[in-house]
Please model this.
Amino acid sequence: MTMKPGDRVRLVSVPDGLRDDEQLSTKSLFEACLGRTFVVQAIQPMEGSRFLVELHVGHVVGTQDFVHSIWVEPDHLARVG
Model:
């Protein structure tokens, strides 16, 4: 799936292997974002033809959007609209 900044997407699954620790609640944040819609902020190329998508998710935890972001593979997203 091709994506670009400004596209609206929904987080439809949580990547395997995420966990919470004393400093970061990564798994809990992804779970709170599940099923919600976000605007793609940036695309980060990875090895080969893979890439990561940046989503600002601050509003999910009660702050401004840009305060918290997640990077996720496009396999876990569905384009909206």
The chain has a mean pLDDT of 93.
